Amino acid sequence: MMKFRSTQSTFSKGVTIPSLIFIIGTCFLSAVYPESTENILNGIKEFIFVNLNWVYVWSVTLFVIFLVYLMFSKYAHIKLGSNDSKPEYSLFSWISMLFAAGMGIGLIYFSVAEPMQHYSSEVFADNHYINRAKQAQLYTFFHWGIHAWAIYGVVGLSLSYFAYRYRLPLSLRSCFYPLLKDRINGKWGNVIDVFALCCTFFGITTTLGFGVVQINSGLQTLGVIPENNFTSQIIIVVCLVSLSVFSAISGVNKGVKILSNINIISVIALLLFVLVLGPTVFLIGSFTEGLGNYVNNFFDLTFNTHVYEKKTLPWFYDWTILYWAWWISWSPYVGLFIARISKGRTIREFILAVLILPTLFNFIWMSVFGNSAIWFDLNIADGKLSQLASNPDALMFRFLEYMPLSTFTSFFVIAIIIIFFVTSADSGIFVMNSIATKNAKTSPKWQLIFWGLLLAVLSLLLLNVGGLKALQSMTLITALPFSIIVLLFIVSLMKALIIDQKYYERNFSASAIPWSGEFWKERLKRIVSFKDNSSVDGFIQNTVKEGFTELQKEFAENGIEVKINQSENPTKIEMEIHHGVVNNFIYGIKNQEKTVSEYIIHEENLPDLENNTTHYPKSYFGDAREGYDVQYFTKNELISDVLKHYERFLEIISEEKNEMFISSNANQGKV
Fold first, then answer.
1. Predicted confidence (pLDDT) at residue 269 exceeds the cutoff of 50
2. Handedness of CA 378, 381, 382, 383 (dihedral sign)
3. Which among 230, 233, 323, 529 has the fewest CB atoms less than 10 Å away?
4. 506 Cβ neighbours under 8 A, 6+ residues apart
C-alpha cells in the first residue's frame, strides 16, 4: 500500500489536463505548420508591440515604483512568514539560486552579443564610435537592470508573502486571495495556474533551444564536432535534461542549491579572468562612467517610447519591448522559484537582494564582457567582432579567441552554460510540478521525470522542424495579459499589507480600558455573542439613556444645562451642552452595523450567526474624531467616559491658542 501511494499521481486534473492540451497543441502546430504558425503568431506579436507597447512600458515602470516604495515604507519590516520565522538558506546560497534562475544562459548568450549589436546597429550609426559604445552600454544596462528584476520581484514577493504569511499554497492563484477570497480554489484559480504552467513550459523550452544552439556552436568552433547537426543536438538535449531531472529529484536543498553555488563561483572566476587579463583600466573606467550615465538617464529611459523618433521605433520594438515581454513571460517561473527559497526574509531584505544585488552584478558582467569586446574590436580585431554581431551564437567564443588560454576558457564557458541551463531547468521542472499539483507537499519522482521528458521531446521536435521561433512568439504574446495580472498582484498585495499592518498595530479597544474583574462573567457573555439590531437599540434605550438622564440631573445641580437629543426610533441618542461662542459639546451613541467575515459565520467554536451582519453601539462626538464600540460599558463606566470627554473639551477651549479653531461657527445645523 505504501509503495502504491508513493507512485500515485498528485496532479490536479483541473490544471494539468488543460495545460497539457494547450502546450502539446501549440507545439504540434509549430512543428507541423512551422511557417504558417510563425507568421500568424508573429503578426499578433507585431500588432501588440506596435500598438500596445505602452502597456509594457507603464507596467514595468509601476513595478519599479512599487518595489522602491515598499522598500522605504512602513511595511518593509514585515516578514515573509511568521514574525519569528528564520531564513531557510544562507545569504550566499539564496542569492546564488535566485540569480541562476533569474538570468541563467542569457548572461552568457547576450553578454558580448547585445553590446556589440547595439554598437553595430544602424540606429546609432550616425554617432561617433565613442557615443555608440556609450549607447551600447547604456541600453544593455537598461535591459538587464532594475526594470527586469522588478518584474521578477513583484511576482516573487506576492507569492512568498501570501504563501508564508497567509499560509496559502505557493501558487499564483494565492496572490488573488484578497480580491477573490475562497474563489481562488475554483475555476478562476485553475485558469491562473494553467496560464502560469504554460508560460513556464514555453519559456524553458525556448531557453533550452537557445542553450543547445550556443553549446553546439561552441563545440563546433573548438573543433569537437564537425558541424551543427540534429544528431549533436539530440545528444546535448538528452544530457542537459537528464542532469536537470536528476538535480530536480535531489530537491532544492541538494541539487539546485549545490549547482547554483558552483555556478556563481564559476561565473565570478570567469569574470575576474576577463577583467584582469583584458583591458582592465578601460573596463573599470567604462563601468564607472556607464553607471553614472545609467543613473543620469534613468527616468528618460524608463518613460521613453521613442514616439518622436520613428527611425528608432523598430529597434525599440525589437529590443526594449521584446525584453519587457520576455521578462514578464518568464516571471511566473522565476517568481515561483524565488518565492520558494525566500521564506523568513523581510520585505526590505527581499527587495534589496532581488532588485539591487543582481542588477549590480549584471552591470559589472555586461561591462566587462561587452566593453572588452568593443575594445578588442577597435584596437585588435580590426572590426571582425562587430561583423559577427548578427551571429550571437558564435560571438562569445570568437571574443574569447582574443583572450589568453582561449581554448580552456571556451570549454569553461560551455561548462557554465550547461550548469546555467541545468539550474534553470531543474528549478523549472520543480516549479511546473508544483503548479500542476497545486503545491502538493510530496510528489512521486516519476512526475518530475515526466516534465523533463516532455521538455526534451518537444524541444527536439521544434529544433528539428524550425518551430522554435513560433513558440518564442507565443511566449512573448502571453506577456501582455500577464502584465495585467501582475498589476492586480500589486493591488492585492497592498490590500493585504494594509490589513497586516493594522492587525499588529491595533491596540485594545477603548471600551476595554476601564475594565476591572468585577463584571467579568457578564462581559464574557457579551464578548462571545453577536448583537442584532433590537438588542443594541435596547442597550441604547436602557443603559445609555439611564446614564445620560442621571448625568443630566447632576449637571443641572452644578448650573449646567444639558439637552438629551434622541431620534424617533431608539437608534441614536446624544447629550449636548450649548455654548454661544465655542462649539457645542456633544457625546452621542448610535446603532452601527458591520459586516462579519464569512469564516466566523461557519466557525463551530463561536456562537451561531444567522447572516453576515451584526450591530454594536458606537460613540460619536461634536468634532470629526472617530468613535468606538461601547457595548461592554456599564452605566457608571459610560458616565465616566462622558466626563472624560467633557474634561478634555474644557481643557481645549480654555487654551488661548485654540480660539480660532473652536469658535468656527460649527453649531449651525446641529440636531
1. yes
2. negative
3. 230
4. none
Q: Are 239 and 438 within 8 A, CB to CB?
A: no
> What's the Rg (C-alpha) of the chain?
33
Return the H-helix or E-strand segment holding 588. strand 585-595
Q: Which residues contact 373 (CB under 8 A, 6 or more apart)?
A: 112, 115, 116, 385, 395, 399
pLDDT in tens, 25-55: 888 888 888 888 888 988 998 999 999 999 9
Residue 185 predicted with pLDDT over 90: no
Contact by Cβ (8 Å): 68, 352: no
As assigned by CATH, the class of the 2-499 domain is: mainly alpha
Q: Report the predicted TM-score, pTM, of the whole model to 2 decimal places.
A: 0.76
For residues 321 and 307, is the Cβ–Cβ distance under 8 A? no
Query: How many Cβ atoms from other residues are within 10 Å of residue 73's Cβ?
Result: 16
Hey, what's the cell of 200? 513556464
Domain ranges of the chain: 2-499, 515-662
Distance of CA 543 to the CA centre of its chain: 52
User: pLDDT-derived band of residue 456, with 50, 70 and 90 as boundaries?
Assistant: confident
What b/e string do you get for 290-318 counting C-beta neighbours within 10 Å, with b at 16 or more?
bbebbeeebeebeebebeeeeebbebbbe
Strand order across the 585-595 sheet: 563-566, 572-577, 585-595, 613-621
